[in-house]
Design brief:
By secondary structure, the protein is an all-alpha fold. Helices cover 63% and strands 0% of the residues. The protein is built from 5 helices and no strands.
């Protein structure tokens, strides 16, 4: 198994260098941005991760708008029965 450094070198070579590779990374939110992020956006971010664990990430990315519509008005604080 390759170590992280080897994988990083391969990725940088494929993307045109370390700087080009790092430009593709998402940037972390600032503390201010984090503090004003609505709970529904946190839930959406977690849902994306869960969907991508079970589906190809390209499918989730392509269909995310429709998936969010399917969950519109979902209230995670509302108690609901599992079935029925």
């Amino acid at each position: 198994m390759r170590d992280f450094e080897a994988i990083c070198t391969i990725a940088a070579d494929r993307k045109g260098g370390v700087e080009a590779l790092e430009a593709l990374f998402s940037k972390p939110l600032t503390p201010t941005e984090l503090s004003v992020t609505l709970a529904e956006r946190w839930l959406a971010a977690m849902a994306i991760c869960l969907f991508q664990a079970g589906f190809n990430w390209k499918i989730v990315e392509a269909k995310w708008a429709e998936l969010e519509k399917a969950f519109d008005s979902f209230d995670p604080y509302e108690s609901r029965p599992i079935c029925g």
